[in-house]
Known about the structure:
By secondary structure, the protein is an alpha/beta fold. The protein has helices spanning 42-51, 67-77, 98-115, 142-157, 185-195, 206-211, 216-222, 248-257, 274-291; strands at 5-8, 11-14, 28-32, 56-58, 80-85, 119-122, 165-168, 200-205, 227-232, 263-266.
Amino acid sequence: MGLKCARIGGSNVRSNWLALEGDVARMEAAVCIDTLFPGLPAHQKIEQVAVAGIEQIEFWGWRDKDIPALERAMRQHGVRVSNFSAHRRGSPVMSNEHPTVLADIREAVDVATSIGCTTLMLLSNELSHDGKVVDSFSEVSSEDKCGALCELLTNALQLVPDHMSLVIEPLNTKIDHPGNFLTSMEQAVDIISRVASPRAAVLADLYHLGVMDEDLIGIVEHYTQHIGYVHIADIPGRGEPGTGDINWDSLLRRLSAAGYTGTVGFEYIPKQPSAISLSAVQELWKRCVQELP
């Protein structure tokens, strides 16, 4: 496959096996480096994913990373950052914690600007370093939590440059994040509809939504206009595609056919050595790309 430029998200980006060739905007793929190549610092992980032919990455928080080293590795290997967490401190569902959350977002915006990232993700609740919900705030009504989350998202958008967007991510409470408020596509769409900004969308994590027994086909076919980013990992187990029961070939083709032209982030816990798992991701994407019209 040759390298061409495709018009995506208002800018020219180089295509590889992660992006379809041609002049029509197509969805792209990225991989989350936090779960890959354990023990390596982020800038060395970039080198490893670049060897696999990958040009786009994402990660969770930025504070545990050497950002200058990460920037150097990005330039050296031609890798871009598609997404990372806008906040790791404070819970958007609690108005009294908004100053903490907004301060964190300000710093994340500075980092995003320096590394050229244009999408930042928001959660409803603060997570600890091991992914546990710090506080479910069970004494607070769902209506109040929803109102606080809408307020936070509205205020956060004032801190984000016009070329950046914010995506809110529902998480599963059955396995990974008990106590999290935002758990469904319907909830997330309701919130961004209230905020009504073209720079606010949903991060549709099909692993989390699938664990919550949502209709994944229905999501990719009927909510595309509300989706600003996609995450996938197989079910059960949260491994790379092919280690579980989900037909990712079908879902990716349906997602593309529905008009989605954003990024699909492979955010999984590898069941094989990281390099081998990336080969599985690459083969899935090539297969779907080659068969798309």
